[in-house]
Write a structure and sequence with these properties.
seven-stranded mixed sheet; Aspartate Aminotransferase, domain 1; globular; alpha/beta; three-stranded antiparallel sheet; 2 domains; Aspartate Aminotransferase, domain 2; 13 helices
């Protein structure tokens, strides 16, 4: 008898990217830029930094286990009840909670593929199956998701926009999908990149929740808010789903520092708009750079990154790494042929342009 659960036997441990300082040391580089993890390139808001500094004097105390103040503030702004709000250790942490609360061995989840690996991994850890539906024109095939649903399907994920391709389904297409979803299935709409989007055809899924649809909507402070290092995300969900996730979460899952910084980051609409505009400009510039080198990024992209098929993603990752640029190889996402490049600062985007030019010209 094995000590370890059968369901984890074939799982591959998460491959973290090397720290910038370690890459510099190993390769003898003066500067390395990281465009791999879809973090925002800008720091936390000034108000968040001030809140963290104030809270540092109280870190001998455990955080508020109920995340009361942040949950209340988010519920008010989202127009939902306090009992319909989850806060967790990033949107990824909430995916884990949803999986733990719903999936038994032999159950299954449905998602598009390539897509965010946590949907698949968190199901596999629990002995559940992941039914992966190929994308259609790099976008979630919602009809295909419906066809893949079976009697033991518990969760269906719509990555909106999809990570790693950056694409999103239109509003009417999403509404039609939700209208046809079987009652025994809970749809999770992952909107981690929501704040970057300015498109009237893109559906704010929290509005759909308020209209009465039984869905879960994921959001995060890790992207445009600049708080990726603190791991704080949130979700709107039916009250019974919130109660179920509270049974499986750890008592102090969200640190005090994360709660303070996230709460202080709310309501700065001007800074959000500024960062959204800078991101769009930077994303357009990255697309220009790729096209100038004969590469065809997937568009229209909605988040703070681009996906491009380079034939051999891991090889391109290694070659760019030697130039001091870290991008994301996508083996774990189901797209080994591609790489994902996060939008950086204007200077970082130009450094990527130079590195890509060196790699594709053979210059080192």
């Amino acid at each position: 008898m094995s000590l370890f659960r059968d369901s984890i036997a074939d799982l591959v441990p998460y491959e973290p990217g090397k720290p910038v300082e370690e890459v510099q040391r190993e390769l003898g580089l003066e500067r390395v830029i990281k465009l791999a993890s879809n973090e925002g390139p800008f720091p936390p808001f000034p108000a968040a930094i001030e809140a963290m500094e104030r809270g540092a004097h109280e870190l001998n105390r455990y955080p508020d286990g109920g995340v009361w103040a942040l949950r209340a503030a988010l519920a008010e702004r989202a127009g939902v009840a306090f009992e319909e709000l989850i806060v967790g250790a990033g949107a990824d942490g909430i995916i884990d909670l949803l999986s733990q609360a719903t999936l038994d061995p032999g159950d299954d989840i449905v998602c598009g593929w390539p897509s965010f690996p946590s949907y698949v991994l968190d199901a596999a850890k629990l002995g559940a199956e992941a039914r992966r539906v190929p994308l259609r024109r790099h976008t979630y095939d919602l009809d295909g998701l419906l066809d893949a649903i079976g009697p033991r399907t518990k969760l269906v994920y719509v990555c909106h926009p999809n990570n790693p391709t950056g694409t999103a389904n239109g509003r009417e297409e999403l509404l039609s999908f939700l209208d046809r979803l079987p009652e025994h299935v809970l749809c999770v709409v992952d909107q981690a990149y929501f704040e970057y989007i300015d498109d009237p055809d893109y559906a704010d899924a929290i509005g759909l929740f308020r209209d009465g649809r039984r869905i879960v909507v994921l959001r995060t402070f890790s992207k445009i808010y600049g708080l990726a290092g603190l791991r704080v995300g949130w979700a709107v969900a039916p009250a019974d789903v919130v109660t179920a996730t509270s049974k499986v979460r750890r008592a102090f899952d969200v640190t005090a520092t994360a709660q303070d910084a996230a709460l202080a980051s709310l309501d700065d609409a001007a800074e959000i708009a500024r960062r959204r505009e800078l991101n769009a400009t930077g994303r357009n510039r990255l697309a220009e750079i790729l096209r100038a080198h004969g590469l065809d990024p997937v568009e229209p992209a909605r988040g703070n990154f681009l996906f491009v098929d380079v034939g051999a993603g891991r090889e391109m990752f290694e070659r760019l790494l030697r130039e001091g640029v870290i991008v994301r190889p996508l083996d774990g996402f189901g797209a080994p042929e591609g790489i994902r490049i996060s939008v950086g600062t204007p200077e970082e985007n130009e450094l990527f342009a130079a590195a890509l030019g060196h790699v594709l010209s053979g210059v080192s």
